[in-house]
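Quick one, T. Sequence first:
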Amino acid sequence: MAGKKQFDMDAALDAAMVQFWHAGYSDTSVDDLSRATGMNRSSIYSSFGDKDALFLRCLDRYAARYGEKYTAALSGADAEPVAAVRAFFDVTLERISDPALPNGCLVAQSAMTVPVLSPAIAARAEEALGSQHQRLRAALTSGRLTDREADAFAVHVAAVNQSLAVMSRAGTSPAQLQAVVDVTIDALAKTLREHD
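Structure tokens:
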């Protein structure tokens, strides 16, 4: 339509997601979102709603994008649980090492600020963390661990995964992050060997 600026909704959501990911929810203003997306304030509000509504969409987008990758990585856990968990961590390590993306994890950052978030955003961040635990638990249960062991490793692997994101944001080297992963992988492999 002549005279009306068109925009790519997916590109705008990705730009907003990266802005929130880089600065965090609290430190991102609507003006920051306007600069990031190239949309004026009124276009942001009319297209996405208020800042909370936009952040929820970005958090969902992030969780879905990486959730699909984690699910694919864990898909072979019934046959090769150690390789599947290593592939799970590889998703995080690849994301962390991508210079085009901010350090850290949007879900982990959001979870760390739950006390200052609105109830809806806090609940969504906690839901995203819970989904990761459930995904891991299901994969590890199918990989010869008992329910108790699968639950314990799911909690541990999810915690290590979130720690990688926080550590990367604090400047921990890729080699150190890989060493953290290797300790978890070795513990899982040892537990599985006890079942053989």
